[in-house]
Amino acid sequence: MSAVWLVTGAAGMLGQDVLARLAGEDVTAVAADRAAVDIADPGAVRAAFEEHRPAVVVNCAAWTAVDDAESQEDAALRVNGTGPAVLAEACREQGAVLLQVSTDYVFAGDGVEPYAEDGPTGPRGAYGRTKLAGEQAVLSTLPETGYVVRTAWLYGAGGGNFVRTMIKLEGVKDTLDVVDDQRGQPTWTADLADRLVRLGQAALAGTAPAGVYHGTNGGETTWFGFTREIFRLLGADPERVRPTTSEAFVRPAPRPAFSVLGHDRWAVAGIEPVREWREALAEAFPALVAAERR
């Protein structure tokens, strides 16, 4: 009998790509969206575990409305903190591996060198605090089978995101002013999904130590640089994209000025880091354009 992989948050952009990646493996993939399993409800999680007996749980469920978290931190904490804690306890009882997707927002965002996996955290907003609570619950409950994979700047064909928004705006705006003082790593959900699956496989094989990994594409850029590359791939004039500062787009939640993550820990699992962001964007682009223009 093939191993069962339970994917929570399965209807989301990343969850869809994890399921697509698992379709190529000899496993039984169970898709659990919010309606099927409320991850913060111990009874619902227990029932799902009793029914499916997962060997691996990939938790893609999350409260990702960064600004709303500032005024609704308790609600965000229920999904981002309590949910992973409930899943971790169920995994402990079941003897299952848990892959918890987290975020660059657990860091202060004022660095100048890529953040190491074991670097000090210091979230500046509610979203980062709630995601850090989830990380801590997983790592403390599952010291041998708990994996935290931090990511950032996600885009994919399966949901709304920055790339799809810029594709749309290119067709209706003569020029775009885009922030050039926030630096990070655009990351394709399909590439992250591949690393999650490979990490889960290595965990089952006993070749990947538990703990924190960073799942972002390589290299770095700003939102401005990212947008110019999107315009270039569209065949549009990149000069139509103009640089501006964060002060021009004041939001309820503070945005990290520096979100570049280091990838050193993949080596201990025998898995290469994710490829450079421009290469990934070029491969992802046709599906992104098709999804936005449907």
Automatic annotation (TrEMBL):
**Sorted alphabetically, which keywords does the UniProt record give?**
NADP, Oxidoreductase
Residues in coiled coil:
none
Under Enzyme Commission nomenclature, its number is 1.1.1.133
Question: What metabolic or biological pathway is this protein involved in?
Answer: Carbohydrate biosynthesis; dTDP-L-rhamnose biosynthesis
According to the UniProt entry, its GO molecular function terms are: dTDP-4-dehydrorhamnose reductase activity
The record, for InterPro entries, names: dTDP_dehydrorham_reduct, NAD(P)-bd_dom_sf, RmlD-like-bd
Where does the RmlD-like substrate binding domain start and stop, copy by copy?
6-285
Q: Which Gene3D superfamilies match?
A: NAD(P)-binding Rossmann-like Domain, UDP-galactose 4-epimerase, domain 1
Indicate whether Cell inner membrane appears among the record's keywords. Answer: no
- Give a short account of what the protein does: Catalyzes the reduction of dTDP-6-deoxy-L-lyxo-4-hexulose to yield dTDP-L-rhamnose.
Q: Which family does it belong to?
A: Belongs to the dTDP-4-dehydrorhamnose reductase family.
Q: What is this protein called?
A: dTDP-4-dehydrorhamnose reductase
Q: Which organism is it from?
A: Streptomyces pulveraceus
